[in-house]
Amino acid sequence: MADATQAIGILQFALDAVVQQQQVIANNIANQDTAGFQANQVTFESSLAQALGSGGPANVQVSPEGLPSGVNGNNVSISTEMTLMVKNNLENQTVDNALSGQFTILADALSA
Amino acid sequence: MSSIWSAIDTAGSGVTVDQSWIDSISSNVANMNDAATPGTPVYQAQYLVAGEQVPANSPAGSALGTGVQVESIDLGPAQGQIVHEPNNPLANAQGDVAYPVVDLGTQMANLVQAQTSYQANAKVMADSKTAYEAILNIRA
Predict the structure, then answer these.
(1) Which chain B residues have a beta carbon less than 8 Å from that of A88?
(2) Is residue B1 part of a domain?
(3) Residues in chain B where the model's pLDDT stays below 50
């Protein structure tokens, strides 16, 4: 039982991260023509891996992408953002399916 | 402006700015041949300046951005360009009229840029909707 709730906790963290990632990508794309805007990215995978390995809290980090800027000081690459968005959507679906799976296991256990 | 569906709001701010951008371009192109007597007001081309929306309670760069907004509208030269057209009823004593300074090539290039930006934001809206729907479908 502890394992199922732990798995749900991990998946919940991952879901929070991909939702934030979606927000950051949307903001990057909305600001693709804003002079001086620097694109951000969300990283959580390494932090989660570390937390799972050695314990301690995992965190979601928003940091600059750091790609080279164009003439107006903007560094949004629309192809990068579109690729990230597709990837992020697949991650989201994966996490959602896994969560549904965990809840199904819990429901089965409760009705057994 | 932030909500649980914030990615859709963010993309919405993008299409709103792009729409204003397209509006300003169409206004510039529509008015590019507005002749005026030199010395009287002549149409000034409008150029949108976009700026990032940053949540009020946090310093720039530290938080999830919430989209884009029109920061200001820059205007083209007020005196226009002087052209010698003695037969124009608006010409002054020297036979000169003033035309707005609008470069059609620049306007068309901006239009293409605004259009692709609009499409990208619309795509984000559609994809974010799919993502949120997937979350709503989590069930036992």
Answers:
(1) 131
(2) no
(3) 1, 61
